[in-house]
Design goal:
The chain has 15 helices and eleven strands. It is α/β, with parallel strands linked by helices.
């Protein structure tokens, strides 16, 4: 019996030991889980306490994100193209927290449509697009004007066309971008020959489409700017009937929205300063200008030099004379029935004091 009792006690002790081990193991697991939960809660508390700093950090990162100023990319081989290529504007605007985005458009009217739709901040057009835009309700602001470059816009006819004079265009199909410098100069050219706009068949086409139509002989003439003119001549597709040198009586304009002008006058001031520097450089470095723009235009240097020789370089200040002339252009478009209502162009101009704050000093000196 003692042996049996000892054996029984051993088994009982063994069972007790196993039970204790299992209990201890379970307790450890519970303790581990609890500690883990506490640790996680502590971490969550720490993260919660740190969240204001995270928000500040996130806000700081957002505040350091650069704003974008969207400027039209020049398709007319002007100083604006030089400004983009040289990169000086980007350097000037970087300390202000701005970066530059260059956007390309077919012509001036498309630029101002984008301006009105908040897709562009600074446009570069001839005299007529802003008037048509104002007639459509666009709240634009005229920033500065430029020296006219009438030689850079020409009336082309096919190489073998029987048309020899402007009078020969009567009844012919003439292509041009509506509301563009081509549209305006066609009116002036026809009037000088005793004709009216209604004496020709107006074919409204943006430059790329007009280029195709002209090349395929679907129109009899085309009023267009560079580089289309020189390219057409080189390919012996078209010849120049006349250019705008005797007919362009007003310069083009750089414009923006009223909202952008009020919010960022310093950006506008820097843009105009750098643009005038690019104009001066372009005027004095024609060959270097051609070499600079050859890669981006995919035109050879001699061809670019031919085109650049047709342009004048330089900005001019907004004066009462400029405003009066722009009003004359607006009144002409209304008289011709090309815009739906009379336009008071002065609505788009600033005060002399406001212009004095944004216009480069060397441009103001040209008054």
């Amino acid at each position: 019996m003692p042996a049996l009792k000892g054996k029984f006690e051993f088994r009982k002790s063994h069972r007790t030991t196993r039970r204790s081990l299992l209990f201890a193991l379970g307790y450890c697991l519970m303790l581990s889980t609890a500690l883990s939960s506490c640790s996680e809660a502590k971490n969550n508390t720490q993260q919660s306490a740190a969240s204001p700093e995270s928000v500040v950090s996130s806000t700081t990162e957002k505040s350091t994100e650069k704003q974008v100023v969207r400027i039209v990319r020049s398709k007319q081989l002007s100083a604006l193209a030089v400004l983009e290529k040289q990169g000086s504007l980007e350097k000037r605007l970087e300390p202000l927290g701005f970066k530059v985005q260059w956007a390309e458009f077919a012509a001036g009217p498309q630029q101002l449509e984008a301006l009105n739709a908040n897709g562009l901040d600074i446009a570069s057009t001839a005299e007529s697009p802003p008037i048509f835009a104002q007639a459509a309700g666009t709240p634009l602001v005229y920033l500065i004007t430029a020296i006219p470059s009438g030689k850079g816009v020409s009336l082309l006819v096919p190489e073998n066309s029987p048309v020899k004079t402007i009078a020969d265009l009567k009844g012919k199909r003439v292509a041009f971008q509506k509301a563009s410098i081509g549209h305006y100069l066609l009116v002036k050219v026809l009037e000088a020959s005793g004709l009216k706009l209604s004496d020709v068949q107006s074919v409204f086409l943006p430059p790329p489409d007009a280029n195709v139509a002209f090349s395929q002989g679907k129109v009899d003439a085309w009023f267009i700017w560079e580089p289309f003119v020189t390219r057409s001549q080189q390919k012996k597709i078209g010849r120049v009937l006349t250019d705008g040198s005797k007919f362009q009586d007003t310069g083009g304009f750089y414009s923006t929205t009223r909202q952008f002008q009020k919010a960022h006058p310093e950006v506008i001031k820097i843009f105009l300063e750098e643009l005038e520097k690019a104009n001066i450089w372009s005027k004095n470095h024609r060959e270097e200008m051609a070499k600079l723009l050859a890669p981006v235009t995919q035109l050879d240097v001699p061809t670019l030099e031919i085109m650049h020789a047709k342009y004048e370089y330089g900005l001019l200040p907004i004066t009462e004379k400029v405003i009066t002339k722009q009003q004359e252009v607006a009144d002409k478009w209304y008289a011709l029935g090309q815009i739906p209502k009379k336009v008071n162009v002065r609505d788009g101009f600033l005060t002399p004091e406001e212009y004095a704050k944004i216009t480069p000093s060397e441009v103001l000196a040209k008054k």
